[in-house]
Amino acid sequence: MSGGGGTCVVFVEDDPPLREAMLQSLRLEGLAVEAHERAAPALRALSPEFPGVVVSDIRLPGMDGLEFFAAIRALDPELPVIFTTGHGDVEMAVGAMKQGAADFLAKPYSPSALIEAIGRAAEKRALVLENRKLRTALRDRESPGLIGSSDRVRRLEVLLGEVARTDIDIVLTGPGGVGKTFVAKRIHELSPRAARPFVSIDAGIWTHPDAELIIFGRDPSERLSRSGLIERAQGGTLLLDNFDTAPLALHGRIASLLETRSYRALGADRPRTADVRIVAAGTDKTGAATSGVLRHLGGIAIALPPLAERREDISAIFRYFVAHFEAEAQAASRPLRANEWQHLLGSDWPGNIRELRDFARNYVHGLTDYENATLAPEPGARSLAALVLAFERTVLVDALTQHRGRIARVEGALGIKRKTLYDKLSRHGLHPRDFRTTRQQG
Fold first, then answer.
1. DSSP-assigned beta bridge partners for residue 278
2. Last residue of a domain, which of 136, 156, 186?
């Protein structure tokens, strides 16, 4: 960007005398201005991180101002655009402001009026970018990642980190409640698109009577124009959640979106580009719906395991949810009763993480009904010996995690001899080295 060190401005005007006069006036005010005769090269100078303001004439050769504005909104809907316009184009400028333009100035306008409009827009832009930085910092500080220490979880966390750095599309599969939406958000958070929107199309939207309007939006040329979820996800990640429940009437349009990365809003004459990374989530990795999505996406499939296949993570996940609900309630929960421990370690958790989260919420709020329950195992439940082993492993994992795999400290915390400790670690397949660099969670 040429010019001084002040507010950045991309200025588009095809009238050479006017362009040069305004360029000089803006630079004299200390603004960093880049001037263009046409919109296309100006668009290449912009990005979602652009820290300034765009000023553009509506009447331009090639790509006109309104097409330029639509392309900017696809790039970053919050990037401020000020239109300059002749008397006959005022109605178009007013319409653009209804679509989100920052301001418009009718020709002839004074340099002071333009500088004042740029100042107002620049203040809002600075606030937008600062809020994005704060959201990113908060997300990085609060995001727990995948909770647990099992081999399945460690391998999955590594895999997610690898695929997130690419822009490849992903299909997540697994039974209900395993955390597919959480994993999709985790991929988004680890990706270069993290500062842009994460938008989900879920089962309630697929079956809504106005699903097409909600998803694809209505063109500005139509009355009551509306931005759709695809447009809101521009530059970010679009989650097709429960995609296997999408009605047949939408299959063709979704397939076209997946194949061409373009879509047509209701009433639109031409398609729009969809700059989104797509993550699809469904329950059946062998089903026709998933196979169809894979074929159109050309991405990779990641199967998420049910909770029953990663029992060693149950207590850590439970503690994480308990801490969350305790903070929410601003109160500490009572110690777990024996029957609650039995349920926690012995249940197969058919509802997976969602069911465990609900159990943790009820436990914190005193809504679990175990006051008069017996210790007799339910039909199909694991034996007492299996429960004792599971509890022992949980205690060992807790101690290793807390003391970062330092055996001397684990030995002291548990009050057992080192040889006994190593015997137990070997029995449970635990290795202190695996806990020396891991971040404590839960």
1. 238
2. 136
Cα torsion angle, 146, 147, 149, 150, sign: negative
- HSE at residue 418, side-chain half, CA atoms within 13 A, is 5
Domain boundary among 253, 275, 305: 305
What are the angstrom distances between the C-alpha of 365 and each of 24, 329, 356, 358? 66, 8, 14, 11
What is the Cα–Cα distance from 240 to 51, expressed in whole angstroms? Answer: 32
User: Which has the closest alpha carbon to 160: 202, 196, 192, 188?
Assistant: 188
In the predicted structure, residue 291 carries a pLDDT above the cut 70: no
**What integer is the mean pLDDT of 135-159?**
73
pLDDT tens-place string over residues 17-29:
999 999 999 998 8
Q: Summarize the confidence of residues 406-416 as an average pLDDT.
A: 84
Q: Are residues 32 and 53 in the same domain?
A: yes
| Tokens describing residue 66 | 């309104």
Residue in 166, 169, 161 with CA at minimum distance from that of residue 190? 161
CA-to-CA dists, residue 438 to 140, 277, 404, angstroms: 16, 29, 7
b/e sequence 196-207, b meaning 16+ C-beta within 10 Å: bbbbbbeeebbe
Is 271 found in the same domain as 174?
yes
State pLDDT tens for residues 54-101. Answer: 999 998 998 988 899 989 988 888 899 999 988 767 778 787 888 888
Q: How many domains does the chain have?
A: 3
Q: CA-based angle 170:236:211, to the nearest 5?
A: 80
Alpha helices (runs of H) in 58-173, residue ranges in sequence order: 65-75, 90-98, 111-142, 151-165
Q: Would you state the structure tokens that stand for residue 195, as one six-digit string?
A: 């500062």
Position 185 confidence tier, pLDDT thresholds 50, 70, 90: very high
Rounded to whole angstroms, the Cα distance separating 338 from 344 reads 10
Question: Do 181 and 263 fall within a single domain?
Answer: yes
DSSP state, 171?
Answer: E
- The yes-or-no verdict on residue 334 having pLDDT over 80 is no
Q: What pLDDT sits at residue 36?
A: 95
Enclosing domain of residue 126: 8-136
User: pLDDT at residue 370 above 70?
Assistant: no
End-to-end C-alpha distance for the chain, whole angstroms? 46
Looking at residue 219, the DSSP 8-state letter turns out to be -
Q: Are 11 and 22 in contact (CB under 8 A)?
A: yes
